[in-house]
Design a protein that fits this description.
Helix content: 40-55%
Shape: globular
Structural class: alpha/beta
Largest sheet: 4 strands, mixed
Order of helices and strands: EHEEHHHHHHEHEEEE
Strand order of the largest sheet: 1-7-2-3
Bound molecules: glutathione
Number of strands: 8
Number of helices: 8
Mean pLDDT: 88
Distance between the termini: 25 Å
Strand content: 5-15%
Low-confidence stretches: 226-231, 236-248
């Protein structure tokens, strides 16, 4: 978009997303979140949630949001489709297909694996149909909706998907992936990401696990015996005081939704 920016990495494997300085502008303890030192009124503004960030930056730069109200409606539809569908569902697919089986006490849950694998497959079928005869999700123009969907969709193999029956989606993955700005964006912070399995401590932190089970809240009814069961970005050159992640504990490569 041509807006200058500075990256402040957040290592979600070591719990940096829970630092009060980060929570102050990203209350859902997720990245990305941005601070624009020159907001709409000239004062700093922070934005969390990638969809809201993309909408803000598209409005600010006057790019990638279509030219007419009809186009903007289409962009919003597909942006929200990612935020409410692909992001959460593919995030759960990553969790149950990749992370849960690798926990200290491995959790291989076929029902959950099937459910999220199937739902991601359904969603990719929807976008494949939409892309019939058009180059981008909102029409014949590249938009923030494509930008939001592609980083999740490019992980289709890890989500145990196939592209054989989705030729339009496969072509779009290549079309967007071939854009020079996509490659440039992918390279940002690459050295901070890791494919290595997380340590038990990292898993427990990221997935809120205590004594081998998710422990974010106290259920009113005791469940049966435990079933076997990011990057903070600052646009415009600002800075926040979070420590740099140590490279030996890189953040996990796949998002957890
Ligand atoms: N809906 C959020 C999802 C962001 C998200 O899933 N971020 C992950 C990393 S890719 C995260 O920060 N996880 C940290 C945690 O769950 O504690 C968005 O689109 O911004």
């Amino acid at each position: 978009m041509g807006i200058p920016y500075e990256i402040n990495p957040i290592n979600i494997g070591t719990g940096e997303q829970f630092a009060p300085e980060f929570l102050a502008f990203s209350p859902n303890n997720r990245m990305p979140a941005i601070i624009d030192p020159v907001g709409p009124d000239g004062e700093p503004v922070s934005v969390f949630e990638s969809g809201a960030i993309l909408q803000y930056l598209a409005r600010k730069s006057g790019q990638f949001y279509g030219k007419t109200e009809r186009e903007r409606i289409a962009v919003d539809e597909w942006l929200m489709w990612q935020m409410g569908g692909v992001g959460p569902m593919a995030g759960q697919a990553h969790h149950f297909l990749k992370y849960a089986p690798g926990l200290e006490t491995p959790q291989v849950l076929p029902y959950a694996q099937d459910r999220y694998r199937n739902e991601v497959n359904r969603l990719y079928g929807v976008i494949d149909k939409k892309l019939e005869g058009q180059d981008f999700v909102a029409g014949d123009f590249y938009s923030i909706a494509d930008m939001a969907i592609w980083p999740w969709a490019k992980g289709w193999e890890g989500q145990q998907q196939t592209l054989e029956d989705k030729p339009n989606f496969a072509a779009w993955l290549t079309r967007v992936g071939d854009r020079p700005a996509t490659a440039k964006g992918q390279a940002v912070g690459e050295e901070l990401r890791s494919d290595k399995p997380m340590t038990p401590e990292q898993q427990n932190l990221l997935f809120g696990i205590k004594n081998g089970r998710p422990a974010a809240f106290s259920p009113r009814v005791s469940p049966p015996e435990a079933p076997t069961m990011a990057l903070g970005t600052i646009v415009g050159g600002g800075r926040i005081g979070l420590q740099q992640p140590s490279l030996s504990h890189k953040k996990p490569k796949d998002c957890n939704g």
